[in-house]
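User: Fold this; tokens only.

Assistant: Input:
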Amino acid sequence: MSIEYSGMGVFPRSTLFSLIFAQRIESLKNFSEEHVGPASVDLTTTGEAYRIDTVLQPDAKKGETIRTLLPWMNAKKIEVGDTMEVGVSYLAKATVNVNFPPQVYAYFNAKSTSGRNFLFVRTLADEMFMFDAADRRHEGYSGEIWLLLEPLTYPIVLTDKECYNQARVFNADTRCAQADLDRILLDHNILFRRDRIQYRQGELSYFTHDGTVLTTLYAKDGVVGFRAKHTTRSLALTDRSVDPHDYFEPVSAEQLEKGNDRSWGVRIEAGWYYLLNTIEMIKVPEGYAAELIALDRRLGDIFTHFAGFFDPGFFGTATLEIYSPRRVFLRHGQPFARFVFERLAAPSPLYGEKSNYQGQVGTRLPKQFAPWE
């Protein structure tokens, strides 16, 4: 079936390049054309970075910029190659500024690799009282973009060679309502078994009645994920084939009642960070992107992702970052991750077969690490 594009929604690669050429997205030091993906722009740092004592959000009514707030945050300059300590916040200038006309706006998500390394990444923008937004769509917006970085489990070396988050740019809110999801399901299978066989439509209940899609936790039969160690050993994000045993330990599923399949699950200890994955493989159809959004608090007091954007064409189980303020037992098959699809404004390349996490089945460690053995 041919896809109809309205020109409204998530901007694809070609439109993002047009915005860069017109300096509506202003590229700065260390920006590369390779940072422009199918439906987002990856961001690293120019190299300007600071250790800060506290986080302040700028007041739009007072015309505050991030730079004017640096003294109040007791900002102390650091350099690329310095180690970012666990539990300490850092501000790094992003490799873009924005100069959006009316109707155009951006939201930001941490990259999957940042999330899986439990590097907490948020975005601050001049005169924006919200995190992860450059949104003044009714009047236009110009401002600097900054990355807020905080390692949660192990120290991480500041680099300008790896990207920390990604900007998604829009000219309309095209997140799917229930009627939109119903239309997608007429032509596309979006959830698959782990053997890549599609579910029959009557086997699953996708519906939350608000257009979002629920997926469920895989937690049975052996090692199902990993728990990050609290270590002083620093990680360089530019490294590859790092020994994962230095930073993670395996997490195995257990049965609360031996022989009872309904009792499978995984035990989560308070204050620790885990990587787990979904039973279902998610497929993002051509013409759409997808975003992980917060679970309804009534489904549990757990935090299930630090990253969460999927390009068109992504296919695989979702590896999710888990944190709980109390000890809990997460059951195999319980609702675990919530997605919303959003329409692209125009055609886009698809997430590539050689991309880091395409086709993943099970919990995948960050790309810096060798496979677990």
